């Protein structure tokens, strides 16, 4: 019996050695495996080449399939290509060039008609009709909130309003003063440059702001919207650049940042900053967590239809309540964290590419590129972030992370939040970014329209 076992072991050992020699020798399959392990973003290099060939072929034939598989392929190739280009630029790669490239390069390519029309149409239609930006935001918010330490969660939500409010007031005053010095006039600077920057983006900011302006001033809505849109976009671009710069500074001076945490002593239950997900996690738990995120977002949608509260904001507070009351089991919280990691890793740059093609008009951005406007916008965003940085030190919060949240107040709505936090490598701050964008923007628009109605 022992001889048989020894003989079988020798056969197995010889087979393993033979297989090892086969793997070690030549290109196939080990060399091929090395190619597969080299990735453009998350896409294996051979698969990336295949997708480029297929997308090009469909585009030249004019028969781009209008289905979700084609949409995913286009966004993945486009988003990760632009991001990889940005990541390889000297100096700029340290200040958020990947997010900037993934958003604004496709916008320029679309405007100058360098992207095939069938691809532009597919991306635009799918992005606008499915509104999948909010699926991304829901997954990020729910995952990041459920992974926070519940003991400090509520403290962070209450404390963030202080630097946000002070930053908004100081930025409004400084931005207006700079505009006056540059000859733009106090009225025009405040209402058409400074306020749009902090209004909360386009859908929740520029549109209701311009509608309110039109009703109060008795002017065409379209004309006013065209004036407030460029500062929104250029302010968001400035915030992206500065957020990337703060991320770089944080690596040089780690005592200034919590790497996605707002205050010292705070820790995350699931440690969102970790690079890899470890431990046993069955697929059904991850899927269940995804359904939880979608369900909470739909509750937010219902709150919007009943009470007028923006769906992401309602979802945010519901997720906080769920976390604080321990309504979700630890296992589901772990699943939510995996969903969060998946979306932040695999979906961010494709989403930015879709935003660039479908929601970012290049001509409106370029229209704001004159020196007085540029200086005023940069001064406003700098003051908003700088004030947050300074105030955070008095509140025992991390200055860099608070400044990045304040930056989201000058972002292009939810799309700006994604780009800013991507450039800063702090997607965990999405719940606080939504407060800055949605609630901060709504308060800004409401207060400014009241002021305008009194001075007009």
Summed up:
It is built from 20 helices and 2 strands. By secondary structure, the chain is mostly helical. The protein folds into 2 domains: 103 residues, no CATH class; 324 residues, no CATH class.
If you had to describe this structure to a student in words, what would you say it looks like?
It is a single chain. With 456 residues, this protein is mainly α. It folds into two domains: 23-125, no CATH class; 132-455, no CATH class. It has 20 helices and two strands. It has helices at residues 2-24, 30-37, 45-61, 68-87, 97-111, 117-130, 133-146, 150-159, 161-181, 186-197, 202-217, 221-252, 283-307, 311-324, 330-359, 362-367, 371-394, 399-408, 413-424, 430-455, and strands at 39-40, 43-44. Helix 4 (68-87) crosses helix 15 (330-359), helix 7 (133-146) packs parallel to helix 14 (311-324) and helix 9 runs antiparallel to helix 17. The model is unreliable at 11-23 and 270-276 (pLDDT under 50).
Spell out the helices and strands N to C.
HHEEHHHHHHHHHHHHHHHHHH
**Could you say which overall geometry the principal axes of the C-alpha atoms support?**
globular
Which strand-content bin applies to the residues?
under 5%
Distance between the termini: 101 Å
Spatial extent as radius of gyration: 25 Å
Helix-strand makeup class: mainly alpha
Number of strands: 2
Number of helices: 20
| Widest β-sheet, arrangement of strands | 1-2
Helix content: over 70%
Biggest β-sheet, characterized?
Answer: 2 strands, antiparallel
Mean pLDDT: 83
Number of domains: 2
Low-pLDDT stretches are 11-23, 270-276
């Amino acid at each position: 019996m022992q001889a048989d076992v020894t003989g079988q072991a020798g056969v197995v050992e010889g087979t393993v050695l033979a297989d090892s020699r086969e793997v070690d020798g030549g290109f196939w399959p080990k060399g091929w495996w090395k190619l597969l392990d080299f990735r453009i973003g998350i896409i294996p290099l051979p698969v990336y080449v295949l997708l480029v060939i297929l997308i090009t072929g469909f585009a030249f034939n004019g028969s781009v399939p209008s289905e979700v598989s084609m949409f995913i392929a286009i966004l993945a190739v486009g988003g990760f290509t632009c991001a990889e280009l940005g990541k390889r630029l000297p100096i700029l790669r340290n200040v958020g060039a990947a997010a900037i490239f993934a958003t604004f390069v496709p916008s320029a390519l679309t405007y100058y008609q360098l992207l095939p029309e069938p691809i532009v149409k597919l991306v635009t239609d799918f992005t606008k009709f499915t509104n999948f930006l909010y699926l991304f935001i829901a997954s990020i918010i729910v995952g990041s909130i459920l992974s926070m330490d519940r003991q400090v969660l509520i403290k962070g939500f209450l404390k963030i309003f202080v630097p946000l409010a002070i930053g908004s007031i100081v930025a409004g005053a400084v931005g207006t003063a700079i505009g006056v010095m540059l000859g733009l006039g106090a009225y025009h600077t405040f209402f058409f440059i400074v306020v749009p920057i902090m209004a909360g983006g386009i859908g929740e900011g520029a549109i209701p702001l311009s509608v309110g302006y039109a009703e109060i001033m008795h002017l065409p809505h379209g004309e006013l919207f065209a004036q407030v849109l460029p500062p929104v976009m250029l302010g968001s671009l400035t915030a992206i650049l500065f957020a990337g710069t703060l991320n770089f500074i944080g690596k040089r001076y780690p005592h200034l940042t919590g790497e996605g945490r707002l205050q010292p002593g705070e820790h995350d239950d699931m440690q969102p900053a970790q690079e890899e997900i470890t431990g046993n996690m069955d697929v059904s738990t991850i899927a269940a967590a995804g359904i939880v995120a979608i369900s909470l977002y739909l509750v937010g949608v219902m709150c919007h239809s009943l009470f007028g509260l923006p769906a992401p904001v309602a979802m945010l507070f519901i997720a906080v309540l769920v976390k604080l009351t321990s309504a979700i089991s630890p296992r589901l919280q772990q699943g939510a964290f995996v969903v969060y990691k998946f979306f932040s890793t695999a979906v961010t740059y494709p989403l930015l590419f879709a935003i660039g093609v479908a929601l970012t008009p290049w001509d409106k951005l370029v229209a704001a590129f004159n020196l007085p406007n540029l200086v005023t916008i940069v001064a406003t965003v700098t003051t908003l972030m700088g004030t947050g940085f300074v105030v955070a030190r008095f509140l025992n919060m991390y200055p860099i992370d608070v400044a990045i949240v304040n930056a989201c107040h000058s972002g292009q709505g939810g799309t700006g939040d994604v780009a800013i936090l991507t450039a800063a490598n702090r997607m965990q701050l999405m719940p606080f970014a939504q407060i800055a964008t949605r609630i901060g923007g709504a308060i800004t628009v409401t207060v400014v329209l009241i002021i305008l109605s009194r001075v007009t």
